Amino acid sequence: MKTILIAGGTGMIGSRLSSVLKEKGYEVYSLARKTKNRTHIHWNPLSKNIEGRNLNKINIIVNLVGENIGKKKWTTARKKELLDSRVETTQYLFNIRKNFPNLEYYIGASGINCYGINNTSIPNIETDPYGSDYMAQLVKAWEESSVLFQEHYPGSILRIASVLDRQGGVLSKLKAPTRFGLSSPLGSGEQLMPWIHVDDLCEMVVHCIENKLTGTYNAVAACDSNREVMKTLSKKMRRPFFMPNVPAKFLKMLYGEMSVLILGSVNASSDKIKATGFKFKYPTLQQALQELLQKK
Ligand SMILES: NC(=O)c1ccc[n+]([C@@H]2O[C@H](COP(=O)([O-])OP(=O)(O)OC[C@H]3O[C@@H](n4cnc5c(N)ncnc54)[C@H](OP(=O)(O)O)[C@@H]3O)[C@@H](O)[C@H]2O)c1
């Protein structure tokens, strides 16, 4: 079985992916700035150091590194952190590629926001141009750094939608008001929110690896309106859904430029990955939420 290195393996997606890959028999290591166990390999890409242990065994890199987009307001300093933690870290990994003599495949994470906002009438496909807003341009720079790898190794880039997971991420944020029956559409509620169940995303990574896919793929199960998401979540949590819309103005005041993550509308197609034979286990919001909300 191959040996996989997950950069960003300590994060929400990375930790789930690590378990999925181990269950399938892969040997998995994660790059981490704070190591917690023997499968963690210490690095700090911004100060350009990495522990040499086990790097020569690596056959596949999955690069999920990046400061959390929705954690802090987008000040100039934060924007630099968002960019550097994606672009400089990937460039660093590329520059030290001689440490990975057995590397044969690379997957880079990217964002579905690459097409720009309020682009909803026809679902975007992978050949569509980048948008001109901040997020789209950030994703463009991020993908360009992954292309460095793609010029030397077969590999793919996954344009990831909002990941629905039990732990953290967007679902935790939406569940908090819903639990108190305070769920309501955000802004007009008409904006489309692309999403994917974390297990489908992990299976998509496995699918890319096992089929040696190359190119760029939208990692999105569906794009539902914000109103639909909030309403379905309330229903699944057996809570009322009657509150008036939260005005866009208020959200803009609260979150500044970052409010685009809630108010912007993105529509994207999953046809390309499906055409490679990938099948979503959770293709609808009902199915995804049913699984994520059930007690384990
Ligand atoms: N979750 C989503 O809904 C979603 C949607 C689209 C795209 N994505 C992208 O997918 C990737 C993983 O997402 P996630 O939700 O798992 O994120 P997360 O939980 O915030 O984890 C981020 C990971 O990146 C690492 N990291 C951050 N800044 C770093 C830096 N400067 N140097 C080295 N490592 C750094 C963290 O490592 P440490 O443990 O060392 O801090 C952590 O392992 C991110 O790039 C994210 O933008 C996520």
Record keyword descriptors for this entry.
alpha/beta; binds NADP nicotinamide-adenine-dinucleotide phosphate; 21% strand; 296 residues; three-stranded mixed beta sheet; Rossmann fold; eight-stranded mixed beta sheet; single chain; 13 strands
Short description:
It contains ten helices and 13 strands.
Describe this structure in words.
With 296 residues, this protein is an alpha/beta fold. It has a single domain (3-166, 196-223, 266-282), classed as NAD(P)-binding Rossmann-like Domain (Rossmann fold, 3-Layer(aba) Sandwich), CATH 3.40.50. Helix content is 37%, strand content 21%. The chain is built from 10 helices and 13 strands. It has helices at residues 12-23, 76-95, 134-150, 169-179, 198-210, 226-236, 248-255, 260-263, 271-275, 285-293, and strands spanning 3-7, 27-32, 40-44, 49-50, 60-63, 105-111, 119-124, 155-160, 162-164, 192-197, 215-219, 222-225, 266-268. The strands form 3 sheets. The chain has an 8-stranded mixed beta sheet, sandwiched between helices. Strands 9-10-12 form a 3-stranded mixed beta sheet. β3 and β4 (49-50) form a beta hairpin.
Question: What does the secondary structure layout of this molecule look like, with pairings?
Answer:
Elements: E1 3-7, H1 12-23, E2 27-32, E3 40-44, E4 49-50, E5 60-63, H2 76-95, E6 105-111, E7 119-124, H3 134-150, E8 155-160, E9 162-164, H4 169-179, E10 192-197, H5 198-210, E11 215-219, E12 222-225, H6 226-236, H7 248-255, H8 260-263, E13 266-268, H9 271-275, H10 285-293
Parallel strand pairs: 1-2, 1-5, 2-3, 5-6, 6-8, 7-13, 8-11, 9-10
Antiparallel strand pairs: 3-4, 10-12
Bound molecules: NADP nicotinamide-adenine-dinucleotide phosphate.
